[in-house]
Amino acid sequence: xxxxxxxxxxxxxxxxxxxxxxxxxxxxxxxxxxxxxxxxxxxxxxxxxxxxxxxxxxxxxxxxxxxxxxxxxxxxxxxxxxxxxxxxxxxxxxxxxxxxxxxxxxxxxxxxxxxxxxxxxxxxxxxxxxxxxxxxxxxxxxxxxxxxxxxxxxxxxxxxxxxxxxxxxxxxxxxxxxxxxxxxxxxxxxxxxxxxxxxxxxxxxxxxxxxxxxxxxxxxxxxxxxxxxxxxxxxxxxxxxxxxxxxxxxxxxxxxxxxxxxxxxxxxxxxxxxxxxxxxxxxxxxxxxxxxxxxxxxxxxxxxxxxxxxxxxxxxxxxxxxxxxxxxxxxxxxxxxxxxxxxxxxxxxxxxxxxxxxxxxxxxxxxxxxxxxxxxxxxxxxxxxxxxxxxxxxxxxxxxxxxxx
Length: 405
Known about the structure:
Elements: E1 14-24, E2 40-48, E3 54-56, H1 62-65, H2 77-94, E4 100-104, H3 110-117, E5 121-126, H4 129-137, E6 142-144, H5 149-159, E7 162-168, H6 177-187, E8 188-199, H7 201-206, E9 219-220, H8 223-231, E10 235-243, E11 249-256, H9 264-275, H10 282-307, E12 312-315, H11 319-328, E13 338-340, E14 348-350, E15 355-359, E16 368-371, H12 377-381, H13 384-387, E17 392-395, E18 401-404
Parallel strand pairs: 4-5, 4-7, 5-6, 7-8, 12-13, 12-16, 13-15, 16-17
Antiparallel strand pairs: 1-2, 2-3, 3-9, 8-11, 10-11, 14-15, 17-18
Helix pairs in contact: 2-3, 5-6
């Protein structure tokens, strides 16, 4: 369904600016009998000329995207360490008492486990059955459902108010954005903290990380437009930091209005966003031109290597990889297979590419790996295979380049 009004301010003044073509839902890793039957949707971004929000123009219903989801937060050491760092800061510096932590889109419970490590009572709300089951099996109380205002009222009646609420890399996924934000405002204790972690739009543009734009990511936050949304529900950002995960992210610490002093960094980041033109559409039209040029370079590089008889596998099968492969038109003709450590993806295929996903431990080393999980490159560079000089990576963004020890 194509939106007619801005997801944040509801204004009708939307203008198209980025076009990634027709794409499958990027986390729909299919089985062999589903190959060739994939459904595709327009993947376009538009800009709101009223509040300055970049957002996806078409909404794929949440019931389709989250009925079967294969992403697991605990699949990489980097994310575990990052979550623990955030949790330690919140529990030691921002809240004065132990209490309930509610995580929206809690996945496999990796984030909540860090709050449990800090002695907090935890509750996860997760729409996807398999990750929720993994969390429950590890002792993280998890309910299967979509968080919204009504759900918040129900939790408050059963468990009381939350001292900490979290939305880690999910707050830009939310279809019922206003109901969810209203729910957060209702459920959050008056002295509580709401922690939002999300890809930061200026860093995404700087690194040309177009593959982070997909149907699940309905809108893209700057500090200014995130605060705009929060202010509608008597919430505000009081502290913010950047984190080197998912290609460049922000961690926003949020409270009820007037409850905490506002860090000068909040306004400094808004001023910087405006200084560099992120509140204007021209920035995003130029970005669209840049990624088209990137596509030509990588397709040429892959073509030259294949022409020389080289074997190329994909390293990782993240959602962003589906977007990149489909936008670049790369299929099993160029990429023989993809390796993974996430068992939920084994024996499936990257949609619309016919590329099979296999257990990394079962294959021999190819000539090159196209690193689709490029945001964890530093972690992969520490592997024995790379350090020994045996492994070669092709990293596609911000410019296609071969990395070899």
